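Let's practice the habit of predicting before peeking. Look at the sequence and jot down your guess about where helices and strands might fall. Then scroll down.
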Amino acid sequence: MNILIDNKSGEPIYNQIYSQIKNQIISGELKEDEMLPSIRGLAKDLRISFITTKRAYEELEKEGFIYTLPAKGCYVAPKNVELLREVNLKKIEEHIEQITKLAVSCNLSRDDIMEMITFGMEEQE
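Done guessing? Here is the structure:
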């Protein structure tokens, strides 16, 4: 597992850890039931407080990406298809928001945008 902390980003460190682990789980880089580094071990490797790492792990567990076995450690949870669908829907909504802003700035109509989307989807078939 590879985690990079960017102290200049302005994003909280726990959120950087959370996002990177979550993305590695979604992409399949971290496999189902794979053991994660211990909270203290990861904190030591990243040279941060274990409380920060603990918070990231708690968020991941709360959202169903990992599970904890007492005295054993934290593991990647089995992929929940509905959870992954929700993550992807959120990404689509964010992209649509960006598309809408760009479309308005270019004076594109709804029909223009729909035509572009239709064309893009036809290329995927």
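How did you do? Helices lie at 13-27, 39-46, 50-62, 81-105, 110-124.
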